[in-house]
Amino acid sequence: MEGRTSDPKKMPMPEPLIELPAFLLERQQLLAAELDRIAPPAERVPSDVHRSIRYTLLGPSKRVRGVLALLVADLFESHEDAMAAAAAIELVHASSLILDDLPAMDDTATRRGRPANHVAFGEATAILAAVALLNLAFGRLASAYDPPLAAALARVLSEAIGSDGLIGGQAADLQLPAHPLRLSEIEPVDRRKTAVLFRAAATSGAMVGGAGEAETQVLAGFGDRIGLAFQIVDDILDSERDKAQDITGERRGHATSLADVVEARERAEELSESAILSLDGFGPRAMRLRELAQFVVNRTE
Ligand code: GRG
């Protein structure tokens, strides 16, 4: 593995936010403030682990999954505060990024334009931080909500992370062949690797908002579609980066290289459109969610 490139003790924290479109910005900022509040202080022992946690959790992120949970909960008037559920989703996301970059996984030295967590803090600390982030996620649910809701939210999150979800998706991703891939090969992996957490975010927002069973299903399906579209766009951006660097024959590490970017773009747009249509029953109050579905396919980073 690469050596540490910088001294974590000298790293300024929290990091600046990546700016989402104006309509998402307020939610993103509230969520970032909540994550800052619940993350262990950097100075507290074990300070390397706490700095490592804060480095990824509070780093420059779109926080799109947590914002999705908040926007879904906003659909319902008499909802409990969805902030803890949104934070739990972001804690899991941060954990997955640290694990994803490790030498045994994607072996990526940089993330968000700066050293990956294990490069900045060392592998052992990065692994401890990732496990601590997962632990914090379930702890937040348990302390923020009444037991029946906390248990239901924990079940949704645990299913999303499990071997039928994130973990299974990552295992499948690691098995993908090194040549450029057809969308039909990638989509089942993308669904588990990424869409499941978007689905869990939307489902959590609906549960906290007190949605009925039918509404929850519609919103889970919305999360699923925009999550898959989000990952396909990620794959497209990866492929375009490869092309710019003239890496066309082989995948760059485990970064996805698509055989047909046009087909992938069409599929992402189709998913976003169908996600938007699925919200018809919610009328104008779902405007923000529709905008989120458009942002997911129009994004450039
Ligand atoms: C036990 C949590 C856990 C995970 C184990 C490592 C792993 C299994 C899964 C990794 C899944 C993964 C990293 C999928 C990629 C998802 C993705 C597109 C990440 C980038 O998301 P953005 O762009 O990130 O939303 P920002 O930087 O905005 O936060």
Overall average residue pLDDT:
90
- In whole angstroms, the N-to-C terminal distance is 27 Å
Number of strands: 2
Return the string of H and E elements.
HHHHEEHHHHHHHH
**Radius of gyration, Cα only, in angstroms?**
19 Å
Strand order of the largest sheet: 1-2
Report the total helices. Answer: 12
Reported for the largest beta sheet, the result is: 2 strands, antiparallel
The distinct ligands, each listed once, are: geranylgeranyl diphosphate
Which structural class best describes the helix and strand composition?
mainly alpha
Question: What's the arrangement of secondary structure elements?
Answer:
Elements: H1 22-38, H2 47-57, H3 64-74, H4 83-101, E1 110-111, E2 114-115, H5 117-121, H6 123-144, H7 147-161, H8 166-175, H9 183-209, H10 213-244, H11 261-277, H12 287-298
This protein binds geranylgeranyl diphosphate.
